[in-house]
Specification:
Helix content is 0%, strand content 12%. It has 100 residues and is an all-beta fold. Strands 1-2-3-4 form a four-stranded parallel β-sheet, with no helix packed on it. The protein is globular and about 35 Å long.
């Protein structure tokens, strides 16, 4: 997979785990995860993510685990994680981050 339709997950409000690892995603649409308010785990590892929109995870307030390792991220906007108040695990290893 290289891209996902922003409405792909509409209506999946009870979904708790989403694994999108080992694809070739580069820049997810900011609306992609908006309906996934019950999501606990999101795995975006092993893709080709270079940057993430600051609002991408805004509605994922129940998220506990976020895997972003093995991508090509060079920086993260501080606003990206602001709404993730339940986050317990954040995997960022094996990226190209120069600052946080």
């Amino acid at each position: 997979l290289t891209s996902l339709d922003p409405t792909l997950f509409d209506g999946l409000t009870a979904l708790q785990d989403l694994v999108l690892s080992r694809n070739q995603l580069t820049l997810p649409d900011p609306a992609l995860f908006h309906g996934l308010t019950a999501l606990h785990q999101l795995d975006l590892a092993d893709n080709q993510l270079r940057s993430l929109e600051p609002s991408l995870f805004d509605r994922l307030t129940a998220l506990h685990q976020l895997a972003l390792f093995n991508n090509q991220l060079t920086s993260l906007d501080p606003a990206l994680l602001n709404r993730l108040t339940q986050l317990q695990y954040l995997g960022l290893n094996s990226n190209q981050l120069t600052s946080l």
